[in-house]
Amino acid sequence: MEHKNGTDLATGFISSAVAVILFGSNFVPVKKIDTGDGNITVVPIVKTIGLGLGLLIWGSFNSLTGWASSRFGWFGMDPEEISRPLLNYIGAGLSVISAVIFLFVKSEVPSSTSSLDTTPLLTERAINSAQTNGLDYLWTKKLSQLQNRIIGCVLAVSSGILYGCSFVPIIYIKDHGKRNDSIYAGSSQYDLDYVFAHFSGIFVTSTFYFLAYCIIMKNNPKVYPQAILPGFFSGVLWAIASCCWFIANHTLSAMISFPIITAGPGLIAAMWGIFVFKEIKGIKNYLLITLAFCIIVSGALASAFSKV
């Protein structure tokens, strides 16, 4: 295997750090804004199993799918070889463990106020505080607790797997671009060259879902004008973070970047909750977040040393 030079590794880990910070912060601009029905799977997941468990399942499957598909060569990709496989396995495992710890971190919100600026970033109250009129998912109330759990878990697992596969087409084209007998022969090996196509796919898919939502709502969608500018800024942060993830994939490979970039944002969101919004308090929460921080750092270091 061709080892990455020091500059590539530095670029990769700096890009990963920027991605972690921005992914952990991109919901801050819309924190005080009523955003209505949310996106495609968040609302039904929250209604059935809660955001805490939902994000845990989603994040774990997202991380493991992205890591494993690159490590073992799923979906027609070339398997990645590393000098220290055990360390890489440990890094991937620690990223999942850190997600489990965040499940036990509780946000404390004063019950005397309903203002959206006090809704936490890490719990389901942040989404439940926004009314989902017209699509209140009352169908979940007609199901048993077991049925709700099954539906919520299936949606969370499916979302995590799909998100974990989001870079597969790019890596597939890059890998087959190295082969003269492939229709992708000569394709660019630089991940950022695929950003426009990747984002265009997101735009077209989002537009389709929005139109379907408008039809379901009988041309009465819940659109909040005050959310447009903060939502745009939130999207810019997400886009920059995604570009950094592309760079990290290029310089480190997905099996290194995925465990780091999927585990870190929860810690950043927790920091916002502690130091800015004052929604996370108590020795127990501080100890849990400290433990999660140590595990995330350990996982990142394990992933880093597995590459060099």
Topology:
Layout lengths: L5 H18 L18 H8 L1 H22 L12 H18 L22 H4 L16 H20 L3 H10 L17 H22 L11 H25 L1 H22 L7 H23 L3
How does this model look, in words?
With 308 residues, the protein is an all-alpha fold. The chain has one domain. The chain is 62% helix and 0% strand. It is built from eleven helices and no strands. Helix 2 crosses helix 3 and helix 3 runs parallel beside helix 6. The protein is globular and about 55 Å long. About 7% of the residues have low confidence.
How many alpha or pi helices? 11
What amount of the residues lies in strands? under 5%
Radius of gyration: 20 Å
Instruction: Supply the helix-strand structural class.
Output: mainly alpha
How many E-type strands?
0
Domains counted in the coordinates: how many?
Answer: 1
Order of helices and strands: HHHHHHHHHHH
Spatial gap, N to C terminus: 11 Å
Mean pLDDT: 82
Major β-sheet, in short?
none
Question: Quick one: overall form?
Answer: globular
Oligomer classification = single chain
**Uncertain stretches:** 110-118, 124-137
Approximate helicity band: 55-70%
